[in-house]
Amino acid sequence: MSYGDVGTTYVFQPVKDRPIRLVVLGSTRGTDLQAIIDAIKSGILNAEVVCVISDRKNAYILERARQHGIEALFINPKGLTREEYDELIMDELEKRSPVDLVLLIGYMRILSSQFVRRYRWRIINIHPSLLPAFAGGMDLDVHKAVLDYGVKITGCTLHFVDEGVDTGPIILQKPVMVDENDTPETLKAKVQKAEQEVILEAIRLFQQGAIKVEGRRVRIVRDGDSFK
After folding, report:
1. Tens-place pLDDT, residues 8-32
2. What is the pLDDT of residue 228?
3. Which residues contact 28 (CB under 8 A, 6 or more apart)?
4. Is 92 within 8 Å of 71 (Cβ atoms)?
5. Nearest-10 Cα torsion for 135, 129, 133, 53
């Protein structure tokens, strides 16, 4: 299925009478996934993680999923083009339809154009900086770049995925202060806390149908308001 092209207007419809269904793609430890799992178990979030998929067999995100009874699937990318690999993932998503959101959490691959087109406005990525600053990097490399540059405020960005790298419309951002004694590791811990807060907020907004895309702008309504 396709959800439109960049430049058009799209309103995410509310998910009613059932949990919002999530698929997570990840290549690392999946610390932000734990926040989602905890929020679901505590009743804070009415959601279901349908499946966690990784391109790395030993990625801890898969073990994290298994520990909580979530289907964990390793898909081996060896010998496959980006398009061939993404076809395998899309096949798995179709088997588990409906999938309301695809979350990229520490996912170390760039999605193919056909994947983005098929799930337009359904794929979101968390990036550990205030985009467009420090785009393109991953994990500790981003935090090291922040410290090397000497910025005083960093943070995280949740954005829709488009055909570029960290270039999709921004949904939410959260700032984090940089302390003089921060290291890449301590800064990562602070930013991850912000990431988790942003991800949980965004899932709730998607479930409520409170997000509208107008070109590059993402509008959010809250507290019973409506889009004009």
Report:
1. 788 888 998 999 999 999 999 999 9
2. 52
3. 59, 60, 61, 105, 106, 108, 139
4. no
5. 20
pTM of the model: 0.91
Can you tell me the distance from the alpha carbon of 219 to that of 102, in angstroms, rounded to the nearest whole number? 20
Cα angle, residue 12 at apex, residues 54 and 114 outer, rounded to 5°: 45
The domains found in the chain, sorted by start residue, are 9-220 (3.40.50.170)
Q: List, in order, residues 6 or more apart from 1 with CB less than 8 Å away.
A: 118, 119
CB atoms inside a 10 Å sphere around CB 152: 9
Which band of pLDDT confidence, cut at 50, 70 and 90, is reported for residue 6?
A: very low
How do residues 114-153 score in pLDDT, each as one tens digit? Answer: 999 999 999 999 999 999 999 998 889 999 999 999 999 9
For 194, the enclosing helix (H) or strand (E) is: helix 184-208
Give the burial class of 187: count Cβ atoms within 10 A of its Cβ; 0-12 exposed, 13-18 middle, 19 or more buried: buried
What does the block give as tokens for 147? 């410290």
Among the listed residues 50, 55, 80, 84, the one whose alpha carbon sits nearest the alpha carbon of residue 68: 50
Is residue 143 annotated as part of the catalytic site, yes or no?
Answer: no
- Does residue 132 have a cis bond before it (omega within 30 degrees)? yes
Catalytic residue chosen out of the listed positions 68, 127, 143, 159:
127
Count CB neighbours of 92 within 10 A.
Answer: 16
Residue 222 near residue 210, CB atoms below 8 Å: yes
Of 27, 216, 18, 55, the C-alpha closest to 121 is: 216
